[in-house]
Amino acid sequence: RNAAKALKAGDDETFNAEITKAGEIWPKNPNLEKGRQQLALKRAIGDNILRTGYCLTPRNIRPELHPEQGTIWKWIIENDEQIYGRYTDCYGKEGAGALRKCSDETMEEIHKIFDVTGGTEFFNAIEQHSDRKAREMGFDGADEEYFMEVYTRNSNEHY
User: Fold this and answer.
1) What integer pLDDT is reported at residue 141 of this predicted model?
2) How far apart are alpha carbons 33 and 158 in whole angstroms?
3) What is the helix (H) or strand (E) element at residue 101, kind and residue range?
4) Angle made by CA atoms 159, 149, 77, in degrees to the nearest 5
5) 114 vs 69, more confident
6) b/e per residue 27-47 (b: at least 16 CB within 10 A)
7) Distance (Å, rounded) from C-alpha 69 to C-alpha 71?
8) H or E element: which one contains 44?
9) Measured CA distances, 3 to 6, 37, 90, 138, 153 (Å)
10) Span 54-78, pLDDT tens digits
11) What is the model's pTM?
12) Could you give the 3-state DSSP secondary structure of residue 91?
């Protein structure tokens, strides 16, 4: 809330301080449901950026995590090359255009950006503290079972 107020008031110094504080608190306080959900975001989106250069790509989406999309979406993902190949010649391949395979040089640059900006360190903190919290909760670390708990649980005790 303080960050939002500072942003609205144009107070960049307070805004940056509040964002920095949040970045330090959230991964270290995974008792908060929303804090624990950072693991799901990090793995579903963050890891995908580091692996492909994109937040989301059709072939990396897990249909079982999105049942609201139904069986058609699952079929589209299973037949992605056939479908998306109609719209671009470089789907999943190096070249120009949407959903292309990013070059090694581009991927190296993305990784450097994460390293220099603290993103890699932040992602590592999320994994480390998630693993600790998972063990406290009786899971065998921050494994797939814990990921699904974090991804699907909603206590309705937050705003």
Assistant:
1) 95
2) 8
3) none
4) 100
5) 114
6) beebeeeebbbbbbebbbebe
7) 7
8) none
9) 5, 20, 42, 35, 27
10) 988 888 888 888 888 888 888 998 9
11) 0.73
12) strand
